[in-house]
Specification:
The chain is mostly helical. It folds into 2 domains: 3-88; 118-249. It is built from 10 helices and 2 strands; from the N terminus they run βααβαααααααα. Strands 1-2 form a two-stranded antiparallel sheet. The radius of gyration is 27 Å and the shape is elongated.
């Protein structure tokens, strides 16, 4: 993000005259906007600030400018302590960055009214859920990952059912979604997929059982019952493949 000289000075904990002295010796490492001609407002981007944080870290009454330049030439200003200083003074929501292009892979542009088409969003959730479960099984961390995995899959399933049934947001019940899908499409979902969906609804009828630490009353009916995540992985792939195919046949209408 962009910052004024006053903002940069505050972040560095220095006065403006000292900031000017710090920038004077390192103009080659700063952006054009930070080196603007006299009388124009200087604007510092994130990289400029990293450079100046590094310079400030090494600044003394008689700083060794050549030593600082050597560090900057070796990109030492991108190391963790300086990035941490930058991030501690950066808001979560920022203005459109200068130079934004396809190489910027570490963020997104938040768009009012939604970023994704409904089916694309459902498929994104499906991929994340699958990745979480793959990682949990391969790293032997199912115990720690179980609820986030279950929540991700359940939310994905709800999205898919609402797409194929053209259902609004009025319900989070998978059982109700199944009923509305079957009513809308004049069909009965095949076994065993239908049964698996309804089993998930039994343990999480409102979409909250896997979201919070406190026990949900619906979970009390399943005390000390085994839940096999390798089978769950198999079952969910079958369910999502079938629904995905059905959604594609009807054109993904919502």
């Amino acid at each position: 993000m962009n910052r004024t000289a006053a903002q940069v000075a505050k972040i560095l904990g220095v006065e403006l005259p000292q900031l000017k002295r710090m920038t004077a010796g390192f103009t080659d490492y700063l952006s054009k906007a930070a080196n603007t001609e006299k009388g124009k407002t200087r604007i510092f981007n994130d990289n400029d600030l990293l450079v100046l944080i590094y310079v400030g870290h090494s600044w003394e009454d008689e700083p060794d400018l050549e030593c600082i330049r050597i560090g900057l030439n070796h990109d030492e200003h991108h190391e963790e302590p300086f990035l941490e200083h930058l991030y501690l003074h950066t808001p979560l929501i920022q203005e459109w960055p200068d130079g934004l292009d396809e190489t910027w892979r570490h963020g997104i542009l938040l768009v009012g009214g939604g970023r994704y088409e409904y089916l694309e969003l459902a498929r994104n959730y499906r991929q994340i859920a699958a990745d979480l479960l793959d990682a949990a099984l391969s790293e032997d961390s199912v115990e720690q990952s179980a609820y986030p995995v279950l929540f991700a899959y359940r939310h994905t399933l709800e999205l898919y059912l609402k797409i194929i049934g053209e259902i609004g947001r009025k319900t989070h019940s998978l059982k109700e979604c199944v009923r509305l899908v079957e009513e809308k499409r004049n069909l009965r979902l095949p076994s065993p997929m239908r049964g698996w969906i309804l089993e998930l609804d039994q343990i999480d009828p409102g979409g909250t059982s896997f979201r919070y630490a406190d026990a949900d009353s619906s979970m009390n009916n399943h005390y000390e019952e085994w839940f096999d995540f390798r089978h769950f992985q198999f079952a969910m792939k079958r369910v999502f493949d079938a629904i995905d195919m059905a959604v594609s046949r009807i054109g993904g209408r919502v």
